[in-house]
Amino acid sequence: MNLLSVSNLNVNFHLKGQDLAALIDVSFTLNRGERVAIVGESGAGKSVLGFSIVNLIDKPGYIKSGSIKLDNKEITKMTRPQLQEVRGKRIAMIFQDPMMTLNPVLTIGAQLVEAIRSHTRISFKDAKNIAIEKLHSVQIASPEKRFHQYPHELSGGMRQRVIIATVLLLNPDIIIADEPTTALDVTIQAEIIQLLLDICRNNSMALLLISHDLGVVSRIAERTIVMYAGRVVEEGPTLEIINDPQHPYTQGLLNALPQMALPGQRLNQIVGSMPPLNERPTGCAFHPRCPYATDQCRQQQPGFINSGVSTVACFMVEDMLTDTNSDYDEEID
Predict the structure, then answer these.
(1) pLDDT(328) > 60
(2) Ranges for the ABC transporter domain (predicted)?
(3) Nearest Cα to 253, choosing from 228, 277, 287, 222?
(4) How high is the mean pLDDT of the chain?
């Protein structure tokens, strides 16, 4: 049985008298200890998906339909007390800006102890010992000293380690990391990614990594889900996605990586931009930016097909597979 199962999830935002779709028929699963990445540009729906999983979509957003199950228990139907048991204890989130998460007027220790004691009935002393142990586990030097410091006294990388330590306090089954390295320099990014990888491996925790950077994803995720304009357009093993991307959008994301350009050469980019919610085109939403778009792409939404070990929603790939199968059948005849 899957640890987390998302089925046909639709999330809307009610803005200026319109119901605008932010997520459309999103489905995927996450197994215990598995590391899955959600990839796409800003506006693809990645963060909305992350917040939906823990039922934290604020108005004017709302879950219109679909299912989100944790151990076969429906999260979308849970009461506030039931959600309190899920958030932090079963599913925890790491955000890209730690200063938006940490309280600037409380010490690191006060915040860690409060997080522990809000979910468990233990003494301050025991909670302090757990907090210091978790700070040590995320490779923070002198954790006893950091316990008494305020967030502004720590570097950006150190603050992100504190957030990871906070997430680990209650030993959750799933960590949702929303662009956890965006605000950090390259060296610190690598350290944080390696730390997340080690934590998940050592504790059998599942990881849902939300990112726009396929370079980061390639280092940590076993499976990758590519999103565009609120829909999943490709899903498969990360190595397959990186080495043999099927969807033109995935190909564009990979070609835009800095290492894909020669020294002194201009970086590649996907022409155009992600459509806003109220201007999503008919058919395949990527067709205005796709070099292979046809009239069919402009008029119809492609369904999912299997291509190797990946699944992809693209008429071009479907036509290529159909032609290949036809040629194969003719050879057999």
Answers:
(1) no
(2) 6-254
(3) 228
(4) 91
Q: What is the pLDDT of residues 251-269, one digit of tens each?
A: 999 998 877 766 777 778 8
Alpha carbon distances (Å) from 55 to 11, 74, 221, 299: 11, 11, 24, 33
The three-class DSSP label of residue 150 is coil
Could you write out the DSSP letters of every residue in 223-285? EEEEEETTEEEEEEEHHHHHHS--SHHHHHHHHTSGGGSPTTSPPP--SS-PPPGGGPPSSST
- Over residues 143-166, the pLDDT tens digits come to 999 999 999 999 988 999 999 999
One-letter identity of residue 270: I
pTM to 2 decimal places: 0.91
What is the assigned CATH class of domain 4-239? Answer: alpha beta
Q: Where are the domains of the chain?
A: 4-239
Long-range contacts of 25-29 (CB under 8 A, 24+ apart): 25/66, 25/231, 26/66, 26/227, 26/230, 26/231, 26/232, 27/232, 28/225, 28/232, 28/235, 29/2, 29/4, 29/5
